[in-house]
Fold this protein.
Amino acid sequence: MAAITGAASGIGAATARRFAAEGARVLLGDRSEEAGRVLEKELNAARGGAAASGFVAVDVRERESVEAFVRAAVERFGRLDVLFNNAGIGAYGLTPDLDPQLWHDVIAADLNSIFYGCRAAIPELRRAGGGSIINTASISGLGGDYGLAAYNAAKGAVVNYTRTLAIDHGREGIRTNAVCPGPIDTPLASPLVNHPAMSAEYARLIPMGRVGRAEEVASVVAFLASDDAAYVNGAMIVVDGGLTAATGQPNFTRILTGG
């Protein structure tokens, strides 16, 4: 049984579809009740009308809301095996210009939410005899970006918090890993990745020549949740088409040879 936050669109929705296609029972959590209910119906229809998926409205910035979401997963399906902490937001702003409230909102949605989810889920995973926690970090948690002070801070913290969870709870059979997407074409990122100038720059910088798809991240999450990843714990899996494989130096081949 898997619980997913930020499940109504983007990476969360793609992962919910992947989990459901592989036979998992899924509880969807999101602030958008309308989109969440639509996806719930889609997943159940694909299972012949069986109530194998459910939806609960959740505001991941609020501890009580996240705790209620995890509790609902256990009450509805009897146990919890996988928690995918996926919900989050982004924000642009240089530090001197950044509204402190926006900073706090990003930290609440991207970092505090994961603490709340793990705090509520770990006792349930213990009762189930173990399980898997997957956190959505980012390549922005592995390095800095121009103008993304709050987002970089939050995602960098997610990366190291994931490692701490892995070493604190690995002996309990609870594996904790993070997926670190690069630019992915989702509703949240669409204004950025589909901006004409930005799109051209991504095509130039990414070795694969394109931004990623939500389904390509979902496949990695499905792996981390599965028994195939039974010895994977504390890993940060980058899904970025090779963007962070480069050192950031100039493209010597293009400049020196015109290639």
User: Anything to note?
Assistant: The CA atoms of residues 118 and 133 lie 8 Å apart. The beta strands are 2-5, 26-30, 53-57, 82-85, 131-136, 174-181, 184-185, 212-213, 236-239. The mean pLDDT is 96.
